[in-house]
Amino acid sequence: METNDLKTLSLRYHPSVEVGKTSGVRSPPRAQSAAIYVHIPFCATRCHFCTFAIVTGKLVNHDLMEEYLVALEKEVAFYAAMLRERRVRIETIQIGGGTPTILSTTQLERLFALLFEKLDCSALTEIIVEGFPTTITKDKVNVLARIDCLKLNIGIQTFNENNLANVGRKHSLFDAASTVKLAKDSNIKSVGVDIIFGLPGSDNDDVINDVDTIAALGVDHLALYPLWVYEGTPVERKIHRGDLVRTRLTGLQRQLATGMGLLAEHRFERYTAFHYTRSEAHKHGYGLWQMAAREWLGFGMAAMSYSNGEVVFNERNLGRYIEKVRAGSVDTGSGQRFSRDEEMRFALQYGLRLRHYPTAPFKDQFGCDIRDAFGPELRYLTERGLITCDDREIDLTSDGILMLGAIEKYVTRETSTIASDET
Predict the structure, then answer these.
(1) Rounded to an integer, what distance in angstroms lies between the CA atom of residue 257 and that of residue 174?
(2) More exposed terminus of the chain, fewer Cβ within 10 Å: N or C?
(3) Regarding the domain delimited by 24-290, which CATH topology (the fold level of the hierarchy) does it fall under?
(4) pLDDT grade, residue 420 (50/70/90)?
(5) Tell me, what's the pLDDT at 9?
(6) Strand-strand pairing, 393-396 and 357-358
(7) Is the CB of residue 100 less than 8 Å from the CB of residue 72?
(8) SS3 (DSSP) at 402
(9) Helices 105-118 & 138-145, crossing angle to 10 degrees?
(10) The Cα angle at residue 32 between residues 31 and 34, in degrees rounded to 5
(11) The whole model's pTM is what?
(12) What's the rounded Cα separation, in Å, for the pair 345 and 366?
């Protein structure tokens, strides 16, 4: 790992797995409770920092979304029957993307009906829906508000229009603020937003403005992420050409410290590396479920599942996903079955994203103390000032939050050291 390579700060959206080692046939969760992820892959445009599996532009139309929903219905119905037979109850659902709110009002209603009718949702505590400001209308908000346990999460990223334009965000400050107000004025019980610090051209004043604005809007939940610059994205190419200036590590440190301090003043409590909330009721349980390495099933193109010690990714190409399901195959991708050591490292990677990663559940799950299993790794991370560790819990430091991508590479033995210096 290069000492001055800030790309090492980029965090994987999920811990590293090596797909193709198994056929991708998903087995039901071992536990009687599970989580569900549903991928809606459509966006009007692709943001310049995005590497998600999505479909954009002229390809996105009503007919294509209808075809996708038909395939999704077949996939969900097959596994829902299996889950009901095993009496597995669903506790949390996340509908992500892409842009789930790009679906029409009727299509959203159809999606919710599918999930509630096919799955055992008697223990459901939340259903999280991701949204983009310009796709959230009053009619759609009315549909969302009818679901008591629904949490709407709106991707805003910043309230600085120049910084938005630099990364290809196609919404205005008015769109962002009015959408939050529309959602807050409805019966939606929990409204959250995503904010990114460290965008090209950003400074501490932007963080102050962003945090103060969301506090004034009465937001219930906040995800505060650093900008991760992924290789091959338009923002990475712009930085390489010199069209944009990358925020250096020292700048990220200042902005994170400013954001964390202001959020505390506004009575937001941090409960993961990146998530803050005003009260327990507004925490996003789906993320906590994953970070505890509990089992979930993913539905839709490119969706990830984790159950019975195996990770499976659905087919990443939209056309092939639809064709495979149409032909009768509900298992469209491939995956990796973990060895015991791999499964423990998978659990450690996810667990480190928690604000406080408790050591007791790891011992309950694997029958050994996490400090015995990963003693050298934990000592090294502690010495580097990236974590604190005792017999009860492991916590990331603020530098650990920024270096989490590098930490995960180290935990998975992709590198023997972690670089944090810059030139």
Answers:
(1) 27
(2) C
(3) TIM Barrel (3.20.20)
(4) low
(5) 56
(6) antiparallel
(7) no
(8) helix
(9) 10
(10) 80
(11) 0.94
(12) 11
| d(C-alpha 129, C-alpha 152), whole Å | 5
Grade residue 5 by pLDDT with cuts at 50, 70 and 90: very low
- Which residues, at least 6 apart from 179, have a Cβ–Cβ distance to it below 8 Å? 131, 133, 134, 136, 154
**C-alpha 309, offset from chain centre:** 21
| 369 CB burial (10 A radius; 0-12, 13-18, 19+) | middle
CA distances from 138 to 19, 129, 179, 197 (A): 41, 15, 9, 29
pLDDT tens for residues 139-193? 999 999 999 999 999 999 999 999 999 998 888 889 999 999 999 999 899 999 9
333's CB contacts (< 8 A; 6+ apart) are 19, 24, 302, 312, 313, 314, 315, 316
Q: Please state the φ and ψ torsions of residue 226, each to the nearest 5 degrees.
A: -75, 155
Instruction: Quickly tell me which residue has 């790891």 as its tokens.
Output: 362
**pLDDT digit string, tens, across residues 313-324:** 999 999 999 999
Contact indicator for 12, 276 with CB cutoff of 8 Å: no
Q: Tell me the HSE value of 270 on the side-chain side, using a 13 A CA sphere.
A: 23
Question: Which CATH architecture does the domain made up of 343-414 adopt?
Answer: Orthogonal Bundle (1.10)
Domain chopping of the chain, boundaries: 24-290, 343-414
Say what the pLDDT of residue 19 is: 72
C-alpha torsion sign, points 300, 301, 306, 310 = positive
- CA–centroid distance for 97 within its chain: 10
